[in-house]
Amino acid sequence: MSRYLPVILGMALVTYLPRLFPLMLLNKLRLRPSMMRFLQLVPYTSLSILIARGILTSDPEMLPAAVGGILAAGALAYWKGNLVLSVLSGIGVSFLLITFI
Amino acid sequence: MSDDRKKSIRQGMVAGSPLILGYFPIAMAFGLLAKNTGLTIMDTSATSMLVYAGASQFMFLDLVRAGVSTGSIILATFLLNLRHMMMSASLSVNLKKDTSGFLPIIGFGITDETFSVLSFNKDKLSLAFILTVNLIAYLSWIGGTAVGYLVGEVIPKALQDSLGLGLYAMFAALLFPSFKVNKDYLKPALLGAMTYFAIFKTGLLSSGWDIIAGIVIASGLGVIVMGKEDKDE
After folding, report:
1. Whether B211 and A50 lie within 8 Å, measured CB to CB
2. Can you list the alpha helix ranges (DSSP code H) found in chain B?
3. Which residues of A touch B107 (CB under 8 A)?
């Protein structure tokens, strides 16, 4: 048996159960309006937090590329709406910033 | 197969395609790093296939290099991925009826990225749509891991790094257009960024707790600022 198999299985279990648990429960429950509103806002707060965290935890030399890529992708998506193109542009801008700055 | 189902699958493919770009490069980075950490390809693939959670997989490699015990690694993973519980809860209210009975499969596929795509398509969450998005994401992740492990070293560093940033580009590409749909959504987004910035600056919370605290506080403040559920939405 591989030396890492126990830890991998352990990680898998503790990752999977929290993902499943709310789906099984909340499907049956009726929630009050403020709770519904809270859950409705989670995508917006969490996405913003993940982006902020990505920027705050990046290497200083990668910072321009990170910010540039994010703004390029976000702006293009906002104005053109094509997701794949936006992500590619973001990567492209990051690449240029890494190479030339 | 019914027309509705075909339509859902097509929509799932459209919605899921940015995930390939967001996931494949990061997965490649993971595969390469795992190889450098001394994991076999079996272990590396198993990690991506069973744990299926980007950030915590990288943390796992970090902790392995630091010689941390198995129990501590599992606990750290639990904490880092706990935020998926909130994302799962957020999605659960919008799942269509045909998903019941398949929740164990759907639940497995909930990650930051699939959650982002699914929650910005919350009017479409039928079984076919969700499974299509999840499948695209999952295949990209395990495919990328394998490719990264086998050939990752040949890609120039600048390209590797910019591909890695593709993940954040994807988040931004999902979030920014939503402000066009409804300007009000700027509020929770800004609250999220500001709250997390404050938490980050205090440095008190470790990885996992900082994100969860940020989401809970910012979303809670959002409820206060924006009022209770808007019945039109």
Report:
1. yes
2. 3-37, 41-46, 54-65, 70-81, 83-92, 103-108, 112-119, 127-151, 157-164, 166-181, 186-202, 209-226
3. 16, 19-21, 23-24
**Considering CB atoms only, which of A2, A56, A90 is closest to B43?**
A2
Quote the percentage of chain A above a pLDDT of 90.
52
Cβ burial, residue A24 (10 Å; 0-12/13-18/19+): middle
Mutation site, A48, A85, A95, interface B, largest B CB count within 10 A = A48
Residue A13: in which H helix or E strand, if any?
A: helix A5-26
Query: Tens of pLDDT along B38-85?
Result: 999 999 999 999 999 988 898 888 788 888 889 888 988 898 888 899
A contacts of B226 (beta carbons < 8 Å):
37, 41
Tokens 């799932």 map to which residue? B12
